[in-house]
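User: Hi! Is it possible to get a structure for several chains at once, not just one? Here's what I have:
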Amino acid sequence: MSEPPRDVPVVEEHLSSTPIMVAAGALLLYIGMELRGPMTYVGLAAFIIPLGFLWIREDMKMWNDKFEMPGVAPGHPLGWWGMTFFLATEVMFFASMFAAFFVARAEHPGIFELGHEHLSEALPLVTINTIILVTSGFFYHYALHSVRKNNRTGLTIGLLGTLLLGATFLTIQAREYASLINEGVVFGDGGDAFSNVFYGLTGAHGFHVFLGLVFIFILFVRAAKGQFNAERHLAVDAIGLYWHFVDLVWIGLYFVVYVGVI
Amino acid sequence: MSHGHVETNPVKRWLFTTDHKKIGLLYLWTSFIFFFAAGIAALLVRTELATTGKTIVDETTYYMLYSFHGATMLFLWIIPVAAGFANYFLPLLLGAPDVAFPRLNALSYWTFLGAAILMYMGFFWGLSDLSDAAQAGWTSYPPISSLGHGQVSLHGVDFFIMGIHLIGVSSMIGAINFVVTTLRMRAPGITFHNMSLFVWATFTTSILVIFATPFIGTAQMLNFMDRNFATEFFINSGDPVLYQHIFWFYSHPAVYVMILPPMGLISEVLPRMVRRPIFGYKAIAYSTVAIAFLGFTVWAHHMFTTGIDYRARLAFMIMTMVIGVPTGVKFFNWILTMWGGHLRWEAPLLFAVGFISMFLIGGIDGVFMALIPVDYHLHDTYWAVSHIHYVLFGGAVMGVFAGFYYWFPRMSGRMYGKKLGAWHFWLTMIGLNMVFMTMHFLGTAGMPRRIYDYREIYQTLNLVATIGAFLLGIGQLPFIWNVLSSLRSGTPVKGDPWNIRQAIEWNGFKPINTRDGQGVHATPPTTGGGSD
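Assistant: Yes, the chains can be modeled jointly so their relative placement is included. Here is the combined structure:
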């Protein structure tokens, strides 16, 4: 047998310990969700610490090093495309939840009519809340517009406005939940076909708003440090796509679930 | 990412790698291990069914075994093995330095492994007896998977459900990566009209994963809430058929996620092994897209017997038959590629021809079953088991083996044993026909699937199927031996052993020096001509 040549070049490898740690964290998170009790908190910590600190720290290091993947065609950066296709999965996730909503409504029209009466009482407040969330979208657009023009003050103000309005939206949503629960519209034990799918759908949206606020908070801190400029603001672009998407889902929710146009 | 310093510890180099080739190899090794584990489960199931009554295992264990077999083969073997090939070869075929998001790529692999552990936590939960593992089949339909409805346990099904959810996350991360890589990182000169057909298959599959996988996430999440938070999405006042709709809206496109990459491998292997350019490149590429698109319009053909509206049934029947058309387009193109070619009857071509002939049987079974009245008779019988195995074993697995033998020299730097390859093919071919053709007869005779015991009249055919299953199992031993021995002492290859000048994935290839355990090659240059 002939000996293979020994001139194998040693490839410079990009090693990272975070993927395996985040995946282990995800495993513990799911185990924690199943076992409950203290294990839930262990799981949450095991997932959030590597994802929220190690992963982002690594991102920041790559950002500082101006790391760029070679061989990419000109146009939107890779991250923008990644976010776009991630949002495609999100569209389909909400589509599946809406499908569950429509099926439940078709099968239990009586229960849904009762449920809708509860929602009608809250409709004025929810309308204001809708306007608040939509306005936050405009603030975000102002932030994005500013960073493209290298206007850092505008960026900071826009992000801060988005943050405050988003937090207000969540607060009002929580108050609405509280009053609905007082009226006996509850999730799970004691709930009905309407309440389960209602909380499932709006809760999933609320969770997305919450995540968006976390992202925007990070952007805000980075903007305050002066990290973005007209040339480098991929994160502002990508999170913008996400935030507008969350806005759009709410508009759909508002008209379908609360107003009941479809 | 640490730059500029070379890690010498091999454990760290594998655990922390973000290199697409290493991640591809991790995917391949892991999924092949699951393939053999699930294969052993299948042999146990077949042994149990060799005679009426109890043969070796009790009823509960039997349910666990077939659930393990089905779920593992689908979620932990055939989907990830395609991800393994895609990881290794997609960037090479595109002339890209790596995938678009290397760290997410690593995350996708490790999440897949975590999900696999999660799915089978139930096996380890009650160590005294194994009765805590999921027993609800790979579909996990409510109410059999609901608390207090089936006889299934507290944690096992929950872990299984969450494992499926997490593996969905893993495939979506991988799919986003492949789509963005294909769209944005093609080397100059490589376009959508000359890129490899395996890239077309991976790209289309990834689009399917992106648009379909969220649905299985929802199905599992709502089922989890039914089990844990007393909601009633699918049970009591809820609707178990809703679960089936959401589940199959993912799981029907998912069968194309399982078959399109092997079809892409065949389109890659066939022209090289018969020394002719592929016949009808565009027809094959567009039929891939057509299959993916139509794949979203046929899900309810799994549910003809659930009492859904007859107009819906009719529409789904027609769409299901329509999907045979683009598949047929591929078949004729493959046959015409071989027509008048110089056929090299080695393992890759053997398996490619095996794929074409066996998938033909499975595919025609599918059109057959799509007819509503025929489906009423055959639904949930061994006919369905036979159909899925002709499509997924005779089809997808054969395709994977064709691609594996074809690219084994590229991945290992060594040639496989050719005689063992032929033995592997013929034993597989005879074994699989013996077990799965027999199931056709069992199915038309009315033997239901997933049952522990059966009537005397099915005895002989079941025994034949079991013998065939063992032949099929023994047929995989030459493969294992071939891979393990060829990795150590196969003839080293100096370049493309198939002598194809334009095979882009061999650009920058240097044989591996296995002595120092380096599993990496030089990064290929980012320029290259079109393939074929």
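Confidence is low (pLDDT under 50) at residues 1-11 of chain A. Chain A has seven helices and no strands.

User: Great, thank you!
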